[in-house]
Amino acid sequence: MIGKDLVLRDLVREKLTLDWSPEQISFWLRETHPQKKSWHICHETIYQAVYWPGNSGLTRKLTTHLRTGRPLRKRRRRPEVRTPRFIAPATLIDHRPTVVEERSRLGDWKGDLIIGSKSRSAIDTLVDRKSGYVLLLHLPETHTALDVNSSLTTVMSQLPPHLRRTLTWDQGSEMASHDKIASLFDDGVFFAHPGKPWQRGSNENMNGLLRQYFRKHSDLSIHNADTLKAISAKLNDRPRKRLNWRSPTQLFLLS
């Protein structure tokens, strides 16, 4: 269907090269061209046109612009659970304010690390639960508790108090000194239970998106702060289905 309409094919290709997902492209086509019914293709049609090009006029090379960047589709593996090495006692997610679960306010963050090749490099990721707004923190050398605390303090101290209410993390050693950053968050710092990645769904989803830019087993130290800022801007400016197709930037910065 896509290959029979050259204008449609070029529009889909253009959005893919901007790293839009097939679902975002599908919605955009419907919203922007409501009278053009033949353009109201579903996201699965776009996926198939990329993975099995045939006569679609697209190419499998465009898979590099999809979230995973995989040349072939495959099932996700369950993330490994890291061992806690805390100095200060941790407060588990069970004691987090119930309002956090409602996603009714800004400033409830979930944090995680994306680890590079041989655990020698990392990028610190922070995702706001309500808006999906992401911050990428530069860790140019090591990712010890001291490094993570420093980067968190630098970034979070620039935000007003109503945009830094809670922080939720897994029980990784990079948060061993979490008590040193507790004052940044009015309602506290909390930790998910070991072996329960679904308690940090925002991170799991965001890390999947970020692997499009930061491949597994790659050296993450090659990405400087400006690069991280550009990539986070790309993600924050994309329309999101769960936000009624608003972007995280619209919700986080303009609300």
Secondary structure layout plus pairing:
Layout lengths: L5 H12 L4 H11 L10 H9 L47 H4 L5 E8 L6 E7 L5 E6 L5 H12 L9 E4 L18 E4 L9 H10 L14 H12 L11 H7 L1
Parallel strand pairs: 1-4, 4-5
Antiparallel strand pairs: 1-2, 2-3
Helix pairs in contact: 2-3
Please outline what is shown here.
The protein is an alpha/beta fold. Helices cover 30% and strands 11% of the residues. Strands 3-2-1-4-5 form a 5-stranded mixed beta sheet.
Describe the structure.
The protein is α/β, with parallel strands linked by helices. The chain has two domains: 6-65; 93-254, Ribonuclease H-like superfamily/Ribonuclease H (Nucleotidyltransferase, domain 5, 2-Layer Sandwich). The protein is 30% helix and 11% strand. It is built from eight helices and five strands, in the order H-H-H-H-E-E-E-H-E-E-H-H-H. Strands 3-2-1-4-5 form a five-stranded mixed beta sheet. Helix 2 (22-32) crosses helix 3.
User: CATH superfamily assignment of the largest domain?
Assistant: Ribonuclease H-like superfamily/Ribonuclease H
SSE order, one letter for each helix or strand: HHHHEEEHEEHHH
User: Could you tell me the number of beta strands?
Assistant: 5
- pLDDT averaged over residues: 84
Model regions low in confidence, pLDDT < 50 over at least 5 residues:
75-84
So how many helices?
A: 8
Question: Radius of gyration over alpha carbons?
Answer: 20 Å
Task: Pick out its properties.
255 residues, alpha/beta, Nucleotidyltransferase, domain 5, 2 domains, five-stranded mixed β-sheet, 30% helix, globular
